[in-house]
Amino acid sequence: MLVPLYEAVHERLGVGPRTRLLGLGCGSGLALLMAACRGAAVTGADPDGERLELARQRLLPDEWQAGPTRTALVHGGPGAVERAAPPERPFNLVTLLEPWPACGTGGTGQGGTREADLAAAARLAEPGSPVVLAGPDPSGRCETAAVLRLAARLAEPRCGGKARRDAPEGSDAAEGPEEPGAAEELERPALRAGLRPQGSWRVACPFAYPDQESAVRGLLSTGWFDAAVESAGARQVDKELREVLHPFRHPDGTVRMENDFRYLVARV
Questions:
Q1: H-type helices in the chain, by residue range?
Q2: Closest CA to 94 of 47, 44, 46, 33
Q3: pLDDT tens over the chain, length 268 residues
Q4: Which residues, including other chains, have CB under 8 Å from residue 69's CB and lie 6 or more apart?
Q5: CA 42, 52, 6: angle at the middle one, nearest 5?
Q6: Residue 132 in contact with residue 264, Cβ under 8 Å?
Q7: Residues sharing a CB contact under 8 Å with residue 155, sequence separation 6 or more, in sequence order
């Protein structure tokens, strides 16, 4: 579902054979795989061991093991990257493209944790290197906000009652320069981490599924509902998720939610 976002970032920054990319919160590694296919040397880091194993299967299949590789995967954040294998040459691109981490997971998208990870990652990057953050666009469409509100509400006991503030719905949008002030949520952690924001852009990422079962399975696989399942139970989460998805079902059974994302490019 986030392929348009990844493609837009890679195209704008000219990701290719000279790119040495550090992907924080890399999840199951799709963005890294797309960068590697463009010739980049990629290092991924994620605190979720299960998702990182999926990335390993994608990026480090058995037939690659015999020879040298331009791919590395590390369990943890930028500190773990530095401890595991300090790069011979600093990274020249850092990305945080996972937009909605589940609360309480220690992921890179949580307030001060994101800022700390950004600051640590900047120390691993060459001066002037771009750092990219992504998230829902509060000035555009975010039909998946209904799903996020459900995940936050069901997870409240585990998260100390602090529900995430969701992006409001808005007007139609295509990829283009951000409206003044609309990138505040992404600029704030970048500025606090000592980075210099350069600009932000919008890209449409619809979430589309062939049927309701696929939608439920796909959304549960993101990790957004992990805390909700722990708090409310899998059966309750499944029931309420199906109810929330009902308005987005089409007569042919497909499920589609329109979403606008934005990505911010800042410099070390």
A1: 3-12, 30-37, 49-59, 78-84, 111-123, 145-155, 184-192, 212-220, 226-232, 234-245
A2: 44
A3: 899 999 999 999 999 999 999 999 998 999 999 999 999 999 999 998 988 999 999 998 765 444 446 899 999 988 898 888 666 678 999 999 876 543 233 333 344 567 888 888 888 999 999 999 998 887 778 898 889 889 999 988 655 544 444 433 333 444 444 444 446 778 888 999 999 999 999 999 999 999 999 999 999 988 889 899 999 999 999 999 999 999 999 999 999 999 999 999 999 9
A4: 60
A5: 50
A6: yes
A7: 102, 103, 104, 225, 227, 228, 230, 231, 232
